[in-house]
Structure formats: structure tokens, C-alpha cells
Structure to design on (329 residues):
């Protein structure tokens, strides 16, 4: 029997690439139980992912004797409830982003993990890939000088945008471009700079009531640098970019989100540009490796529950600045 045996809550579309495929390539990990509101979907995913047990409900996944780790890719509105139940059962949790509906929920979840002395992380998979680690290394080396401005954007949605029936378009399930797309550039600028920005202003395009189809922020960092983030699901061509401008040069990362689908790191200093492309091993493989390593050693991970509190604080303030409701309020 493998050392780390996951139970997955629901049959979310992200599960095959985020968990099933990397688990199949990791000798220490297996996915052994699944439940979904529609049992037939769980059965299809179980067959596809060689998951032995299809059980009746989420609680049965958590309570299954073969399961010792929980993956929570449920709608954001369900993250707090089922993460708390998993932690109460003594099982660490890999929770999809966005971590929670708001900062207050994130605090509840982090405190529960601390009380239980269990690992709980937000699944910002990009953070564990060598492409982002290399960008961080370049920035911290001082190659581009003092930070002047940092900007991140993630735009997606296809030609027609996101269908109205999608949970991303429903306020009550934690919908909105910021919760699903904009959270990534928000995380990029935080983790690249190591600073927590102030949201100076924000502008949103609203679709269904209280749901942002796009949201752009203007930021100020404690160091004095400025920045911006942009997330959109309006139906635009795929773009994921991180641009860091310094007193000596610029650093551009093309596709820090899923660099295994193609990427480039461009560094320009004194008018000279160099480019790098690194491994195409998936971000999800690196994330699973880090999660397993932390389970074994207690190593602190950069996207842990306490980082998620800071991330949700940023998101809540962006919604407020745009004149929109914070999720879950």
C-alpha cells in the first residue's frame, strides 16, 4: 500500500490533471476513494483514474479507512466546510484555489489546521515549478535593480467566454474572474516581491449580479513600487504574463501559470536581452512532490494556509475597491 492515499471530494474537471495524472507518476501516492453529487460522474472518473472505491458522499471519502489525505476541488463555497471536516478527521488537505470565499473563512481554516497540527495548503501549483523559482532567483539577485513596477495578468475564456451555467458565473458558489483567474496574478506579484500590496483602486466589468467578468487592480507596495493585476473571463485569447520592471532592467515571464504548456523567461539589462526555457514537467507534479515532502518532513510550504489568509485579504480588498460584494457576504 502506498504511503499517501488520497480521497478526492467530487469529480471536478481539474482533478485529472491536478491530482490523478501526477499521482500516477509518483510511487508514494495513490488516489483510492472518490464521491460526487452525481455518482455516475464519480464512477467515470474512478475508472479513468484507477480509483478503487466509489463511495456515497464526501463524508464517506473523509472517513474511509484507506484514505489518509484529502484533495478538495469542490466549488469555493464548499472549501471551508469540507476542509474543516477533513481536518477534524485527522487528515491533511490539498485545497484548490481560491482557498475560501473570503479572508474570515481562510482564518477559520488556518486555525483549524494549526489546532490539528495538520498540513493544509492552497493549490497554487505554479509556485513549485522551476520557471517561477528561476524568476524569483533572478529578481532576488538584483539583476534588474530596485523594483519599480510589477504587473501580472491572466485572461482566458474562449471566443464566447464562460457559459452562464458555469459555477464561475454564480456569486453563491464563489464565482467571478478574480476568484478563478485574477487570483493567479495576485499570487504572482505577492510571491515574487515578498510584499503584501495595498489595493489603491480597482475596476470591474460585471456580468451576472455581483460576478466580475474581469477585474483590474492598481497596487502600491510597502517598498514604494507600484503594480497591477488583471484577471478576465470575458472571452479573450489566452494570456498569462508576469512583467517586473526595475531600475536596471526588466524581467518578463511568459506563461508562469502552466509553463509545461510552453513558456519563456526574458531578462533585459542594459539593452541586452537573454531568454530561457526550462523543464516542461508539469506544475502539478512539482506541487505533489512538495506536498508529499512536507507531509514527511514538516517543511513549511509557500502556499500554506497562513499565506492563503493574506491572499484572501488581497482578493477581498480588490472587490471592495471595485465596489463589489466580497464573496460569501
Amino acid at each position: 500500500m502506498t504511503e499517501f492515499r488520497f480521497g478526492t471530494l467530487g469529480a471536478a474537471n481539474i482533478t485529472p490533471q491536478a491530482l490523478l495524472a501526477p499521482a500516477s507518476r509518483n510511487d508514494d501516492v495513490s488516489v483510492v476513494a472518490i464521491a460526487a453529487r452525481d455518482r455516475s460522474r464519480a464512477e467515470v472518473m474512478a475508472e479513468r483514474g484507477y480509483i478503487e472505491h466509489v463511495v456515497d458522499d464526501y463524508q464517506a471519502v473523509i472517513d474511509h479507512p484507506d484514505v489518509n489525505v484529502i484533495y478538495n476541488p469542490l466549488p469555493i463555497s464548499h472549501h471551508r466546510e469540507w476542509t474543516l471536516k477533513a481536518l477534524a478527521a485527522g487528515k491533511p488537505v490539498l485545497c484548490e484555489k481560491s482557498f475560501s470565499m473570503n479572508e474570515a473563512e481562510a482564518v477559520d481554516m488556518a486555525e483549524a489546521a494549526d489546532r490539528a497540527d495538520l498540513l493544509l495548503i492552497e493549490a497554487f501549483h505554479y509556485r513549485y515549478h522551476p520557471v517561477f523559482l528561476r524568476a524569483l532567483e533572478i529578481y532576488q539577485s538584483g539583476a534588474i535593480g530596485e523594483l519599480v513596477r510589477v504587473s501580472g495578468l491572466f485572461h482566458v475564456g474562449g471566443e464566447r467566454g464562460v457559459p452562464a451555467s458555469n459555477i464561475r458565473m454564480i456569486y453563491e458558489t464563489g464565482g467571478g474572474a478574480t476568484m478563478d483567474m485574477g487570483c493567479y496574478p495576485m499570487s504572482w506579484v505577492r510571491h515574487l516581491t515578498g510584499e503584501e500590496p495595498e489595493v489603491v483602486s480597482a475596476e470591474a466589468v460585471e456580468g451576472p449580479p455581483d460576478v466580475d467578468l474581469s477585474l483590474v487592480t492598481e497596487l502600491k507596495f510597502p517598498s514604494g513600487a507600484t503594480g497591477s493585476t488583471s484577471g478576465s473571463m470575458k472571452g479573450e485569447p489566452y494570456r498569462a504574463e508576469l512583467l517586473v520592471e526595475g531600475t536596471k532592467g526588466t524581467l518578463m515571464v511568459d506563461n508562469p501559470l502552466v509553463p509545461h504548456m510552453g513558456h519563456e523567461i526574458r531578462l533585459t539589462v542594459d539593452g541586452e536581452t537573454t531568454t530561457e526555457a526550462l523543464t516542461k514537467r508539469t506544475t502539478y507534479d512539482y506541487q505533489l512532490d512538495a506536498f508529499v515532502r512536507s507531509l514527511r518532513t514538516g517543511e513549511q510550504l509557500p502556499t500554506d494556509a497562513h499565506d492563503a489568509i493574506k491572499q484572501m485579504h488581497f482578493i477581498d480588498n480588490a472587490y471592495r475597491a471595485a465596489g463589489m460584494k466580497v464573496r460569501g457576504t
Residues 59 and 223 are 46 Å apart (CA to CA). The chain is about 35% helix and 25% strand. The mean pLDDT is 97.
